[in-house]
Amino acid sequence: MTGWGAVLAACAACFALKLAGYLVPPRLLEGATAQRLAGLVTVSLLAALVGVQTFGAGGGLVLDARLAALAVAAAALLLRAPFVVVVILAALVAAGLRAVGVG
Fold first, then answer.
1. What is the pLDDT of residues 19-60, one digit of tens each?
2. Which of 5, 37, 64, 74 could connect to 103 by a Cys-Cys bridge, CB 3.0–4.6 Å?
3. Is there a contact between 74 and 61 (Cβ–Cβ < 8 Å)?
4. Domain-wise residue ranges, the chain
């Protein structure tokens, strides 16, 4: 399959998935279970993305400055720091460790 064929197939699959969402009866989506699962799926996907981006590189597990930055960000979040402060602290820790050659 060529690159454009893959793009067109992905577009068709996304359209079909979106159409299927419109065809689901509303009573199935308004229940307490569906609402709870929707929230859990969002959190689990975000956690998976953070995990892969933090610890993965080239198909292997990597522990470097990103781990320390994630720990600092988690601590700042536990201390109820504003999100901008959390991001800046994590970036400073990662940059500082990479500057001294740790990560």
1. 998 998 888 888 888 888 888 998 899 888 888 887 777 777
2. 64
3. no
4. 63-103
